[in-house]
Amino acid sequence: MGGLSIWHWLIVLAIVILVFGTKKLTSGARDLGNAVNEFKKGMNGDSDKPQARLGEDKSAASAEQKQHDNAAQ
């Protein structure tokens, strides 16, 4: 009594599939998986794109500084 058996969960699953449809459920699961992967990358610091931008900005800034220094002399 009080607990839900496997049959209860199967009926709930069938109702959810009927209400939302399989296409919305699969796209929602895919979006959730992508969000979790992005979160893990952010926590581990595995994001390559911001580091590449920082390196490019530094080289561009140093090149501009050299041109400015040469023009001042």
TrEMBL record:
It is found in: Cell membrane. The chain crosses the membrane at residues 6-22. Part of the twin-arginine translocation (Tat) system that transports large folded proteins containing a characteristic twin-arginine motif in their signal peptide across membranes. TatA could form the protein-conducting channel of the Tat system. HAMAP family: TatA_E. It is a single-pass membrane protein. NCBIfam families: PRK02958.1 (NF002813), PRK04561.1 (NF003393), tatAE (TIGR01411). Belongs to the TatA/E family. Residues 38-73 are annotated as: Disordered. InterPro entries: TatA/B/E, TatA/E. Its main location: membrane. The gene is tatA. This is Sec-independent protein translocase protein TatA.
